[in-house]
Structure formats: structure tokens, C-alpha cells
Amino acid sequence: MFDGSPPDTPRAAPRPERTLRSAAELVAAGLLPEAGRAAAEAVAARYAVAVTPAVRRLMDPADPADPIALQYLPDAAELLAAPGETADPTADAPFTPVKGVVRRYPDRALLKPLLACPVYCRFCFRREAVGPDGGVLSEAELDAALDWFARTPAVREAILTGGDPLMLSPRRLARIVERLSAVPHIEIIRLHSRVPVADPARVTPALVRALDTDRALFLCVHANHAREFSAEARAALARLHRGGGAALLGQSVLLRGVNDSAEALEALFRAMLAARVKPYYLHQLDPAPGTARFAVPIAEGRALLRQLRGRVTGLAWPTYVLDVPGGGGKAPLGPDFARLEDGEWRVDAPLRPEPPGPE
Ligand SMILES: *Cc1c(COP(=O)(O)O)cnc(C)c1O
Ligand code: SF4
């Protein structure tokens, strides 16, 4: 292909694609207008920014309402805190028995080995904590956290989160999975990750091998839009499924402008299922600072899910949950189809009783 360089001029090797991490890089890549640079710089000084090559390929710079760009590109609105927003909306801090562990429930606890993510979501509930620098447990701290799991027999499930546990080196991840698998009372190892959709190239054979365990291993993939299930993402998920036999679950956040219609949710959940990912949770947005532009009221969320019930395969139905502010745990938000009226249960039918139409 003619590329403008005169014949016989030695050309520089193509630069490997890199993750974009600053306002200047986003402007240079044509993802932000020059006029937006100063505001984006101010946001990036406060909250981490990262757009991987895979995510960049999903973006459509010609679409001013692009549901992918909206999730990752810094916006001036992030510097405005709305009433009710807090730095630690899920109140992890009081539930931390040792550094890197959060135990809010009797039978399961989080292990946060690092705070880095492949991308930084603009609506993140841990946005005050996550970022590329710092936030990695030292070897001694990781040992202490793993020891805590080993001497806490009521805890049957270790949930690796962060940050994103698939950002660990395969060697470090393998060590954690091995140590947890050696604890007799750990029955389930769960990982929450955005890597399979945000940076599928990280899902190497070594990373898949690191997850090899005789314990039940659940990988909960965070994705919010059907388009995130690209061919590369689906291939990465297939490697994870076939490699160690991980069970794949999906978690999404209900987000204004990204998935706030019945059509967008249906497409998202269908794309998940086609990639062997069972929708597990649809989260109500946690009120982290500067995230109000993404908020969808609970009544609207319930109405959206109600439209899917019956019409879309039951496999697609997630539990719609709110992490109750202050650390009370995740509560299901419905919608309910049953209610007590004058001592009698009334149950709404999700479908009108008509047979399905012709083929
Ligand atoms: C979300 C969460 C869990 C997992 O809850 P499940 O309902 O089992 O998915 C565990 N611990 C903490 C602190 C959490 O925030
Ligand atoms: S991947 Fe998860 S933890 Fe990381 S920025 Fe996004 S929402 Fe936050």
C-alpha cells in the first residue's frame, strides 16, 4: 500500500500499539478534541485514565454519544461532586481485617492484591483508590492476607478483585491460586475482571494456566455494552473457558447513555450468553464522586428489566442489585412480579398469554 514515503526510504518499524494514559495522548489519537484537552488534563490529574488498543478499536469517534467512549474518556463533569457522593461508597474500610482483605459477609471475603486495572472506568465505585501507581500488596502483605484466609475457616470463598486480578503476572496469580487451593475450607475461588473485554491480549496461555485449580473457579467478567464482546474478547473468553474450565459470569452496571434501554440491555445480555457468560449482577450505580451523569433511577431500572422477562431467555436475567451505602451488603432491587393484596398473592404474568408468532 502506498504510504507517502519515497521508495527505498527505510521505514521505522511500526510502533506497537500502546495503552493511552493522558489527555495529550487521547487528543493525539483523535479521541478527544483539542478544545477538550485542558478539562481532560484536570480530570486525569485526579482520576486515572487508560484506554487499551482493544477498547480504542471499539470506539467510534464519529459518534458523539458513543457508549464505549462514554465509559472511558475523561469528562469535566467528573470534577463536580453531587450531594450524597462519597469517596468510599461501599464502605470497605471498616471491614478490612488485614491489608488487602475485605470481609463483609460470613462465608466469603475479597482479596485485593493490586489496584491497577486495564482501563479506568469513569463511573468506577473505587475510583478514589484504583490507579496504575502503587496499590500492589508487597510479598509480605500478600502472605499475611493469604494466611488470614487459611486461618478463617468460616470463609469458603475467596473473591479476587482490586483493581483487576488479571493484571497480575501469571506467576504471581498462579501463586495466589495455588495457595488458596491448598486451604481445605476454600471451596470457591472467584475473580472479578474487565481484562477479557478490555485487554483480551493479556489472556495468554500462561495466564489461563495460572487459573488451573481443582477448586470451583468462577470468573466474573465486567462488561456494559454488547459491543464489548468483540471477536478478540470472545476468543479470550473461550480460552479461559476451555483452558481451566472456569465458569464464566457477567456483571454490568446500569449506566445512562451506555445501556439504559431495554434494547441495549437485551443486546448486552445476549452477547454475554453467546460468549458463554451468564449474566450474574446488574449493579445500580454506586454514588462515587463525579459519577452523577451515569445515574439511572431504580424505578427505571426495574421497568427496563421487567420488559425483558419472558421475552428473552431466562439465562439472560441478572439479579439487579444495590450495594447498600454504609456496608450493609448487596440488596436485590426487583422487579417483583408478586404482591400481597387483601391476604391474597397477586402474580403478574410476564407475557400476554398469546402463543409465539409464526416463524
Ligand atoms: C460484592 C461483594 C461480595 C460478593 O457478593 P456476592 O453477592 O456473593 O456476589 C463479597 N464481599 C464484598 C465486600 C462485596 O462487596
Ligand atoms: S475495571 Fe472495575 S475497578 Fe477498574 S476502573 Fe473499571 S469499574 Fe473500577
TrEMBL record:
One of its GO terms (molecular function) is L-lysine 2,3-aminomutase activity. The keyword S-adenosyl-L-methionine applies. The keyword Iron-sulfur applies. InterPro entries: Aldolase_TIM, LAM_C_dom, Lys_aminomutase-rel, Lys_aminomutase/Glu_NH3_mut, rSAM, rSAM_sf. It comes from the Bacteria. It holds the Pfam family LAM_C. PANTHER family: L-LYSINE 2,3-AMINOMUTASE, LYSINE 2,3-AMINOMUTASE-RELATED. This is Lysine 2,3-aminomutase.
